[in-house]
Amino acid sequence: MSVTAARPSSEYDVVIVGGGHNALVAAAYLGRAGKSVVVLERNDRVGGAAVSEEPWPGVAARLSRYSYLVSLLPQQIIDDLDLRLDLRRRRYASYTPDPADPSRGILIDHADALATAESFRRTTGDASEAERFAAFSDRMLPLAAALFPTMTSPLRREDAVRAEMPDPSLWHALTARPLGELLRESLGSDLTRGIALTDGLIGTFASADDPSLRQNRCFLYHVIGGGTGDWDVPVGGMGQVSGALEHAARTAGAHLRTQAEVTAVTPDGAVALATGEELRGRLVLSGVGPAVLRRLLDAGTTGSGTIAQPLAEGAQVKVNMLLSRLPRLRDESVAPEAAFAGTFHINEAYSQLEAAHAAALAGRVPDPLPAEIYCHSLTDPSILGEELQRSGAQTLTLFGLQVPHRLLESGDGDAHREALLSAAQRSLDSVLAEPIADCLFEAPDGTPCIEARTTADLEASLGMTAGDIFHGPLAWPWADADEPLETPAQRWGVATEDERVLLCGSGARRGGAVSGIGGHNAAMAALELLGS
């Protein structure tokens, strides 16, 4: 049903559709600038994927249920909005057991270079692989330092950005050739190539040599965060991030409305709710994915509300666990407290990631399932109640790769969830000295504390079409030579086909992850359009 002016409208400078973390960033900036803003969220609270929840009744464990680490949130946004956040750096970067012999593995310890080098030698049999891996990582640092500050500025042309990059050959390798070529040239072992490749596959279904370079773009976003590529633990859980942003938006005067489902949007700024209420904004900012926005615009202009085909699809499964204790490893040379404190790579050798992609293309859940896990509570025990902390309980977060949403198209959602959960447990068990099931904490009703969140769950609970955490294909964070940059929305990378409707979520240019960048850039464009 199309939006009409049958009843008086509530007028705002900006109406924001969707209440995720980017929407809250935009609302805070706009409110601070004196603009009237309303945020409309269909769920019963704001925060989107950046929330903490207690998944198991009667168990005092507040997990970051969807998003889980922070990398791309600029310090500029934290400072501008006076956010009170404690983001902690992890001592251990990663642990990767050898799938062929899990009694040995690579532990990358920021505080002990000699031990790190020895673990590379012992696992790969190559005394020089640690140096190659360190050189590969160090090669990314100048690129990250130069590129990350541009993320909160108007888009620059590709040639201007390229001219300032310190390593022209690296630029070419990342932007013109499939990532697999760079990894094979830079690293010598199947295992270390896999460690690097995972950064190109988080939420992205691709092979290392995909000619679309989608894996390259994903890799780039993962290695430039904060100008260093580090991934930090939010103390208190991801809910602390969205909570701080909610406080900033409310303090700035933004009106946040929950259980406010939007059913239609018109290009001239009218927004209809499921209740029949209509709001109107001089501008509409969309925190929902472009596919969802297209459906809302169709409903507003033609009344059809047809569902737009997704531009991309999610390719991950997230498993949340609460353990009574950390499991023992087959690798007796590494303490579980070290292995699980960083990113623990499971069956993620380069060849395994490629085989998993081929299996998924053939319509099968990969076996073994490539996955990576980390233990939030080792860095930040505050997410657990005092009794759980005293008992030695720990959380585990597992992120499975190469499981695209298309695998759900011809099956039952619950059965698919169980299949992925079983695959994740088998993969994890393959590198442990005991079954993970033996370590799971039991809720008061006797059920084990483990849950899987699939792409279908993300679509149902968060409105992410096909479970795509990026709301569409990631784009390079610069403008092409002939890309129009005439309007504020175009210059800030938040334009749609309608000049009064802007993107402010992960679907914006330079969106994706818990960054707030989409919200910041939409607010900057909106302020230019609205005037002071």
Structural key phrases:
single chain, 532 residues, alpha/beta, FAD/NAD(P)-binding domain, 2 domains, 7-stranded mixed sheet, 18 strands, 35% helix, disordered N terminus
Task: Outline the structure in words.
It is a single chain. The chain has 19 helices and 18 strands. By secondary structure, the chain is α/β, with parallel strands linked by helices. The chain folds into two domains: 200 residues, FAD/NAD(P)-binding domain; 293 residues. The longest helix is centred in the N-terminal third of the chain and has 19 residues. The chain is globular and about 65 Å long. The two termini are 35 Å apart. The N terminus is likely disordered.
Count every helix, treating DSSP H or I runs of 4 or more residues as helices: 19
Estimate the helix proportion, in percent.
25-40%
Radius of gyration, in Å, reads: 23 Å
Number of strands: 18
Instruction: Kindly report the average pLDDT value.
Output: 94
N-to-C CA distance: 35 Å
**How many domains comprise the coordinates?**
2
The computed structural class is alpha/beta
- Describe the largest sheet: 7 strands, mixed
Approximate strand percentage: 15-25%
Low-confidence stretches: 1-9
- Shape descriptor reads globular
What's the layout of helices and strands?
Blueprint: E1 10-17, H1 21-32, E2 37-40, E3 52-53, E4 63-64, H2 75-80, E5 87-88, E6 92-98, E7 101-109, H3 113-124, H4 129-147, H5 158-163, H6 168-175, H7 179-186, H8 190-197, H9 214-224, E8 233-234, H10 238-251, E9 255-257, E10 262-265, E11 270-273, E12 278-286, H11 290-301, E13 317-323, H12 336-339, E14 343-346, H13 350-361, E15 371-374, H14 376-379, H15 386-391, E16 394-400, H16 413-429, E17 450-453, H17 455-462, H18 488-491, E18 501-503, H19 517-530
Parallel strand pairs: 1-2, 1-12, 2-9, 6-14, 12-18
Antiparallel strand pairs: 3-4, 5-8, 6-7, 10-11, 11-12, 13-16, 13-17, 14-15, 15-16
